[in-house]
Predict the 3D structure of the following.
Amino acid sequence: MSLSIQFLGGVRTVTGSKFLLSNGEVKILIECGMFRGEEFLTQRNYMNFEFNPSEISYLILTHSHIDHSGLIPKLVKEGFKGKILCTKPTKDLCKIMLADSAHVESVELEWKNRKRIRAGKPLLTPLYTVEDANKSMSFFNTVDYNKLIDLKNGIKVKFLDAGHILGSSIIEMFCKNGNKEIKLVFSGDIGSRGQEIVRDPTKLSYADYLFVESTYGDRLHKSRKETIKEFKSAILSAKRDKGNIIIPAFAVERTQEIVYELSKLYRKGKLNGFDVYIDSPLAISATEIFLNNKEYFDIQTKRMLKRGEDPFDFPILNYLKSEEESKSLNKVKSNAIIISASGMCDAGRIKHHLKHNLWRKENVIIFTGYQAVGTLGRAIVDGAKVVKIFGEEIAVKSKIYTLGGFSCHADRDELLKWVANFKNKDMKVFVVHGEEKSSLSFADYVKEELKLETYVPHLGEKVDL
């Protein structure tokens, strides 16, 4: 059998992860992510797949984030009839995230199409609908961590905890190649050690080929201790100036982790006078899924729950589901901590909160996650004085905090330590899922520090293994 892999996304960019593995008899897709950020990338979502979806036997999914799963409904819509393998939390989260992705796009398209009608331009059509997203869920098959699964085609797979978000996985693939078996490892997204709620990433010791992410491959996070200190400083700043705190946060994992930290601050009496609002229906649904999958929590969170301390439920915490409740926050001028999605500020309710708060100097905006090139969040983090939101120019006068220590991604040194656990000095390392500068930098770092052969693939490139 001739084993090959084609890189169809998530290379020299941090979005759109998609890898096609073939052994001459079967085709397996690892990830099926949506491209986000710059226009030239997002347009790729609307292009035809580089393969026939009906010929894909399996889709192996590391986790639920849209940059890894977001094109699954399109894949199904265009003929996929195989099996999607993932953990139970990943399936549960995909159910809400894919439907939300369809809904968010329909709202955005409605706004764009109103402008196109006035301009006499043809209307845009959505990538997929909520119905398409719901239909795709029938193809999901859940698997347990650490269990070897024979795909009956010369390939076996095993899912290991990646410590990134709830249910996230590292994938081991054992592939027959002629008379021998070779082992491929796909890192998915590797989590930062010491995160709240989730366990630390699994260490592996052997692979012939490693496909490792590099989201933060060229930088280091602040320590957890420094991050919490800065988080408290931001809260005190807003309290002193009688302003609001706006936190753009990914609905899955980041929102729950921030709420976890706020619950600890509340119990220490550090949030007196504040009200906390979770203004994201998706984040609320995700939190319910977390509580239905407690067996995946780390031991500290399990102990906390056993003591009767629910980090997702304390007196000043308010979950807002309706649009009316969300709009009511526009009138709140001080002492509100508003956590809303999307995390990169490119869609969802967070755009409304930024529109009403970004121009007020007494307010604080706290970024707690990665901001891709081309997103509204990236423009603000990079120091833009004015940004456009819903076609209107909004001045950036709030104090901006960027707290990398909350990231659920490993930083450069954590990634290097994870790769250093592999003992095969002949292992070839493909550096993927990072912006070009980050991937190239991390590839050089691995080569210099660990003396391993590294390569950063190009989009569309096919490599024989």
Summary: DSSP finds 14 helices and 22 strands in the chain. The CA atoms of residues 85 and 141 lie 5 Å apart. Residues 88-119 form the longest helix (32 residues). The radius of gyration is 22 Å.
